[in-house]
Design goal:
The complex is a heterodimer of chains A (113) and B (112). Chain A contains no helices and twelve strands. In chain A, strands 2, 5, 6, 10, 11 and 12 form a six-stranded mixed beta sheet that branches. In chain A, strands 3-9-8-7 form a four-stranded antiparallel beta sheet, with no helix packed on it. Chain A is globular and about 40 Å long. Chain B is mainly beta. In chain B, strands 2, 4, 5, 6, 9, 10 and 11 form a seven-stranded mixed beta sheet that branches. The termini of chain B are far apart. Classes of the chains: A mainly beta (113), B mainly beta (112). Chains A and B meet through β6 and β10 of A and β5 and β10 of B.
């Protein structure tokens, strides 16, 4: 069965610092991989997605993620965080062409001054 | 602007009572979904539908029913609400793959 693990429930970083949020997945084939962000009292918004090709994918607002097949990982990165990046970040996986996701538990990011 | 709208935004329900959560989409999508979010568990699929008047079980359907009376509307029904159903519920729509999901803002349900 597919599963997604986000080992860090909470992460606190200083504004302007770099960020890495970790995501590990378990799947027998190469899945589709996604990062979503949830701002307070809002729905989930897609940050970026990986289907194939270049393992580093660019997303919105300066976010990027790197797929590693050998490590079964899809870590999210940002070079310099802003206070407005404070939110909950979800990693998700889907079977190719499938209609549904399997989500990780989420990582709550707090950016402090 | 295409969107997914959920109502109510929050609700307090009594144990054993009936609860109906509503979802409306203007994306012209065939698929609609209900997910449940619990702290520490991410989102889990309860029910989904790919055509009006038909619903399918997701990964955690027990204790929930769903209704899709039209392409635009999808409801989640808790016939006998229980404390364990306290959670945030998200509705979403898509064209049939994960590439075009749109999520609603969520309904926060507290069962007391």
């Amino acid at each position: 069965a597919q599963s997604v693990t986000q080992p860090d429930a909470r992460v606190t970083v200083s504004e302007g610092a770099s960020l890495q949020l970790r995501c590990k997945y378990s799947y027998s084939a190469t899945p589709y991989l996604f990062w979503y962000v949830q701002y307070p009292r809002q729905g989930l918004q897609l940050l970026l997605k990986y289907y194939s090709g270049d393992p580093v994918v660019q997303g919105v607002n300066g976010f990027e993620a790197e797929f590693s097949k050998s490590n079964s990982s899809f870590h999210l990165r940002k070079a310099s965080v802003h206070w407005s990046d404070s939110a909950v970040y979800f990693c998700a996986v889907s079977n190719t062409g499938n209609y549904k996701y399997v989500f990780g538990a989420g990582t709550r990011l707090k950016v402090i001054a | 602007e295409a969107a997914v709208t959920q109502s109510p935004r929050s609700k307090v329900a009594v144990t054993g009572g009936k609860v109906t959560l509503s979802c409306h989409q203007t994306n012209n999508h065939d698929y609609m979904y209900w997910y449940r979010q619990d702290t520490g568990h991410g989102l889990r699929l309860i029910h989904y539908s790919y055509v009006a008047d038909s619903t399918e079980k997701g990964d955690i359907p027990d204790g929930y029913k769903a209704s899709r009376p039209s392409q635009e509307n999808f409801s989640l029904i808790l016939e006998l609400a229980s404390l364990s159903q306290t959670a945030v519920y998200f509705c979403a729509s898509s064209g049939g793959t994960v590439s075009d999901y749109t999520f609603g803002s969520g309904t926060r349900l507290l069962v007391i």
